[in-house]
Amino acid sequence: MYHPGSRAPVKLWDLEFPNPVGIAAGMDKDALAVDGLFALGFGCVEVGTVTPLPQPGNPKPRLFRYPQHHAVVNRMGFNNAGAEAMAQRLARWRKQIGQRAPGILGVNLGKQKTTPLEDAAGDYLKSFSLLADLADYVAVNISSPNTPDLRKLQGSDYLGGILRTLNQANSERVSSGKRKIPLLLKIAPDLDQEQIEEIVGTVIDCAWDGIIATNTTIDRSPPYENLEKQGGLSGQPLRERSRQVLRQVLRATGGKVPVIGVGGIETADQMKEKLDAGAALIQVYTGFIYKGPGMVKGLIRA
Question: CA-to-CA distance for 212 and 140, rounded, in angstroms?
């Protein structure tokens, strides 16, 4: 299969990304379009967010476009068919492609809406157990604003427990002769410096492999005060804040942890901003909605 990014691979963890451009979680929640997304040129496709059991998500309407701002507000609420259904689909895909994977496949895990925060680690563990063999890396989503109280998991009361639980499961995989799965944490843009440093400290202490910065924002500062209030805002309004958080995270890590930059990337110059700031890779979502499939090859050529 022709891959337009094959000229510029990025080696990270034990993986080789054909190019630094990925599609963020949320676009393909149930791993229905993996082949198609890779065929467009993405070096990485991150599917999900997936929860242990199926759930319908929040009531509609739950997705709002603002073309004048090149922005989207969503409050989807982790609508997905569940981890078992995704595992079955990805197992068929892996069997079909054999050893000729066109790029890197990430799986993004979330908490069930009805699961109490103190039991959240169990949710992530269930999905990890079902999907780890089928993923190149696993990302943990504790930063969506659309599941009640989910962002509280970014606090130290819960975060360390989640990270250590998946570390243990990963170590057990290695003991049984399987490969270690890189583990990444996806964080919110609505964090202050102290919160970022605390999260980064926990990530380093637990020897996790990477951070994804950032998810959508709940901020509606002018000129965006009239946009839909409930839900996460993405696209160009997120661009500068996500870059600030990226830089804060990189300073806090001291270069010890790779960071994937997400938020407000639509052009080659905006991609360059993230890479120049220190991002190891970038992911797109809203820009892809507005620019369309040709955007991917344009970014890679740049």
Answer: 9
Q: Hey, what's the torsion of the CAs at 158, 160, 161, 166, to 10 degrees?
A: 130
> What 3-state DSSP class applies to 92?
helix
Q: At what angle do helices 239-253 and 193-205 cross, to 10 degrees?
A: 50
Render 166-231 in DSSP notation, one character per residue: HHHHHHHHHHTTPPPPPEEEEE-S---HHHHHHHHHHHHHTT--EEEE---B----TTSTTS-SSS
Say if residues 199 and 158 touch (Cβ distance below 8 Å). Answer: no
Domain ranges of the chain: 10-301
Q: Tokens 């004048």, residue?
A: 68
**ω into 147 cis (within 30 of 0):** no
The string of pLDDT tens digits covering residues 33-91 is: 999 999 999 999 999 999 999 999 999 999 999 999 999 999 999 999 999 999 999 99
DSSP 8-state symbol, 4? T
Write out the catalytic residue numbers. 144
Summary count for the chain: helices (H), strands (E): 9, 13
What confidence tens digit (pLDDT) does each residue in 171-185 have?
999 999 999 999 999
Is CATH 3.20.20.70 the classification given to domain 10-301? yes
